[in-house]
Amino acid sequence: MTDPRTTVVVITHNRRPELLRTLGHLSALPERPPVIVTDNGSADGTAEAVARHHPGVRLLRPGRNLGAVGRNLAVREVRTPYVAFCDDDSWWSPGSLAGAADLLDRHPALGSVTARIIVEPDGTEDPIVRELRDSPVPGPDWLPGPALGSFLAAATVLRTDAFRTAGGFHPRLWLGGEEELLAADLAADGWWLTYADHLTIHHQASPVRDATLRRVHGIRNTLWFTWLRRPAGPALRRTLDLARTVPRDTASLRAFAEAAAALPWVLRERRVLPDEVESRLRLLEPAQRNSTARRYTG
């Protein structure tokens, strides 16, 4: 079932065993997708191992850690109409890439498809799946699943051209909630985002992670997105909600300090979303309040 419609893009940094496991799963997919890996400056022999064990993988070595921008670098090389992201500790199930491409083929105004996430090795659903499945965002009748206000990069297939036109991932956000800004810009360009329950990606979290730094970046990036795209009233309300709900610790303080220090460039780049897109984001605010503690703790 070779399928030429989708390229898989993976970014990695010092996770050689996890990446090799992921590439093993991807190489066994019936779709036989092209795979591009951006090695974000690994020092553990990752690039050499990929070249040795997976010579068919396109390997990019920018020489430093670009964070999510490593995906942008890879998408420049994509020649297929669709691009699927996954992390170095996640992998797509057989048939899911073809299923996502079928949905994108069928619906010309659909910009992205996010899959169900299964946590390994237990085989249980990630708690975020319920939020995706129960999204309060209203969508058109033709949409094949729930409309989303954002997406999860490690579990999503997008239109390559839509990604490029929207500008990809913002270079200042690095990693941690970096999808929210891009998702809003895709919606502003007229694209719809959906969740597809019949598609699956597996995630076995790497033990090599700095949870505190990721939390700092997640809070900071949420603030930056809010200030960059939301009108003044909703932006102030969302900022106060975050201040009330994030843990009272040095990580949260650092996140707010980094966000505030960037106000000069944030104000220069500020571009408020169209009213239609903003109205969808307002519907997400109650769910965001309920999930903030889970998202930014630990």
Automatic annotation (TrEMBL):
Transferase recorded as keyword: yes
Q: Mind telling me which PANTHER family this protein's record contains?
A: GALACTOFURANOSYLTRANSFERASE GLFT2, RHAMNOSYLTRANSFERASE WBBL
Q: Which organism is it from?
A: Streptomyces virens
- Pathway connected to this protein: Cell wall biogenesis; cell wall polysaccharide biosynthesis
One Pfam annotation, family name? Glycos_transf_2
In this protein, which residues make up the domain named Glycosyltransferase 2-like? 7-130
Ordered alphabetically, the record's keywords are: Glycosyltransferase, Transferase
This chain belongs to the protein called: Glycosyltransferase
- The chain's coiled-coil residues are none
Q: Does the keyword Glycosyltransferase apply?
A: yes
Which InterPro entries would you find in this protein's record?
Glyco_trans_2-like, Nucleotide-diphossugar_trans
Q: Family, per the entry?
A: Belongs to the glycosyltransferase 2 family.
